[in-house]
Every structure is written in structure tokens, then in C-alpha cells.
Amino acid sequence: MAEVVNIPGADSTAKIRSIFAPALLPFITLGIYFFFWWYYINREMADYGRAKGSKELGDSPGKSLLAVTLGALIIVPALVSIWNTTKRVQAAQRLAGVTPLSGWIALILFVVISPAYDAYLQSGLNDVWRAETAPEAAPPEPAAV
Question: What is the structure's pLDDT at 125?
Fold first, then answer.
């Protein structure tokens, strides 16, 4: 089950999902889960970008979804959406102070084992949501003398 977290500074939520969900559920649902997942991760990043005042996380998850559905018929829009979403995940990680995922590993996973690419993206987003919702570390108390 996914853990729902509030996006700091936004009136919306994000989900910390199992990395197996985007990798395996599309097989069980005949690909339908992938489209829902793609829309939601792009919506979460757009909301996070608005909360952080950044335009590099996108603004239209609907366009991203359209590119991987109907745009996939002519191939290029789907590839551009995949590229841009990977860049958005990396940008979200930078904004959260998390080490960004490797673009080269993402490319290799996409080409060789596409479900592993989806799991890799989700793991990167999970790092963002965990970093943003982690309680602030309190400064250590001075030792009593």
C-alpha cells in the first residue's frame, strides 16, 4: 500500500509507492496502471514545482499523459515525454537536496528492461517525498556540566 504524504507548500499530496507497483502492475492491468501512474507522478512533480517556485518540474501532467498514449503512435512525443519526466525527477531530487538519479542508468534501463526504468524513477521520487516529509533534525542539546 502506498503511503500518502503532503507536499510541503502545496495543497496536494504525493504517494510513496512500492517500486514494484510501476514495474509489475502494468502487466497485471494490461498496461492501464502505467498511464495512471504516469499522470500522477507528473502531477505530483508539477505541484511540487509550484510549491518550490520552479518551472522545471512541468506544469501539465495531461500533456505528458497524452504524449505517452496518442503521441506514442508517432513515437517521438512519447520519447520526449519520457526524457522530460526523467529530467523532472532529477530536478525534483535536486530541489529536495537528494542525490539525483543517473540519466545513463535510466537510459540503459529504459532500453533494456523498461519496467526496471519505471521502478528506478519511482525510487527517485520516493527519495524526494521522504526527504521533504522527514522531520527536521533538532540541534543536539548541550551536555550538562
Answer: 94
Q: Give the burial string for 19-35 (b: 16+ CB within 10 Å, else e).
A: bebbbebbeeeeeebbe
107-115 long-range CB contacts below 8 Å, 24 or more apart? 110/82, 115/22, 115/23, 115/24, 115/26, 115/27
Range of the domain at 124: 3-131
User: Does the reported pTM lie above 0.70?
Assistant: yes
Q: Is 43 among the domain residues? A: yes
Cell 519505471 -> residue = 118
Q: Determine the residue type at 80.
A: V
Number of domains, the chain = 1
β-bridge partners, 3:
16
Most distant CA pair in the chain, distance:
72
In contact, 71 and 81? CB cutoff 8 Å: yes
- Residues near 88 by beta carbon (within 8 Å), at least 6 away in sequence: 42, 45, 49, 56, 57, 58
- What band does 82 get if pLDDT is binned at 50, 70 and 90? very high
Residue 72, pLDDT above cutoff 50: yes
